[in-house]
Structure formats: C-alpha cells, structure tokens
Write a structure and sequence with these properties.
Structural class: mainly alpha
Distance between the termini: 57 Å
Largest sheet: none
Strand content: under 5%
Radius of gyration: 18 Å
Length: 193
C-alpha cells in the first residue's frame, strides 16, 4: 500500500482540494476531480464534508493555518519588533516559494475569495486572515513604538497595504520578486520610524 493510501481520506481530500483549488480555481474544480485525485470514492467526500462549500471552508482554514506556521517559524527567529514585522513579509515570500503545480498564482485565500459571492462565509474567513496579518504587524509595531500608538497604527496599515499589493503583483507575475522588494521597502520604512 502506498504512503498516500495510508493517509486518512479526509487528509487526502483536503490535500487534493488544496492542489486543485490553487491550480485551477474553486469554481472550475468539481468534486469528481477532487475525489479522483485523492483516490477515494465520492461517498468518502460526503462522509467527511457535507458539501463542496464545507470542503472549501476547510481548505481556507488549512491555508490560513499553513501560513501561520510559516509566520511562527520566522517569528521565532526574530530578535526584536522590527524583525517581527519583517517575519510577516518573509512568511509571504516563503509561501511564494512553494513548488506549485502550475506555478505561483498569488494568495490562495484571495484567489478563492474572488470566486465566492458577496456574503459567502468563505470571504469572511479570508477577511479574518488578512485582519490577523495586519494585527500581527500592528503588535510588532506597538512594541517598536510604545510611546507612539497612532504612528504604530498608521504604519501597520501602510505595511499591510504594501504587503497585499506586493502579493497581488507577485501572483500576476508568477514569482516572489515583488514580495522581496516589498520586504526591502518595509525594512527601509522601519528604519525611519
């Protein structure tokens, strides 16, 4: 029995969904494609997820946790609040360096959110992730500028916009160059605070 077959069906389904949703999009990926790639019967999908929408939510949650793990690994090596802010940028760049089947396409969460209708709970999940990223930056900046809370708030919003804009451009261009440039800009801005 192969290593893949030994993994529980839920894990295989999530892994297959992650690959297909990122490479092909949420809307373009049917449950038959996911079950075929996971090597499970269609009933296994519905035994683990009540619907494709529930599978999409699980995918979004998994992507968020995946990024948080990258951030935590970077943040553990941060020696000061400035390095903590840069750890956020580095985690985005780390994500861009993954070996994606059809190349880097930008933020998987934003790509999925773009396909979901207004009011869909999946869009709220993505929004909460982006808000958490900004809170992480803000927390580091509050530590860096304890006597200047207004400046810390403004800089965190500025850096969040820089990061998200760089991620959008990096996705369009298919590599992490824009993320590396954004990190350098962030480092320069942090030196001037």
């Amino acid at each position: 029995m192969s290593e893949t077959r030994r993994r529980p069906a839920r894990e295989r389904l999530l892994a297959a969904a992650a690959r297909r949703f990122y490479a092909d999009g949420v809307t373009a990926t049917g449950v038959d494609t996911i079950t075929a790639e996971a090597g499970v019967a269609k009933m296994s999908l519905y035994n683990n997820f009540s619907s494709k929408a529930e599978l999409v939510m699980a995918y979004l949650d998994a992507r968020h946790e995946e990024w948080l793990a990258l951030y935590r690994a970077r943040a553990e090596r941060a020696d000061n609040p400035r390095d903590g802010v840069l750890a956020v940028f580095d985690a985005y760049a780390d994500h861009a360096e993954f070996a994606y089947e059809r190349g880097f396409r930008g933020c998987g969460l934003l790509n999925a959110a773009a396909e979901l209708p207004a009011g869909d709970e999946g869009r709220a999940v993505v929004r909460r992730h982006k808000e958490e990223v900004e809170r992480l930056i803000a927390g580091h900046l509050q530590d860096l500028l304890p006597e200047r809370p207004g400046d810390a708030r403004a800089a965190s919003e500025h850096l969040s916009f820089l990061l998200e804009g760089a991620m959008a451009r990096a996705g369009l261009e298919g590599d992490g160059t824009r993320l590396r440039h954004a990190r350098a800009m962030a480092a320069d801005l942090l030196e001037r605070l």
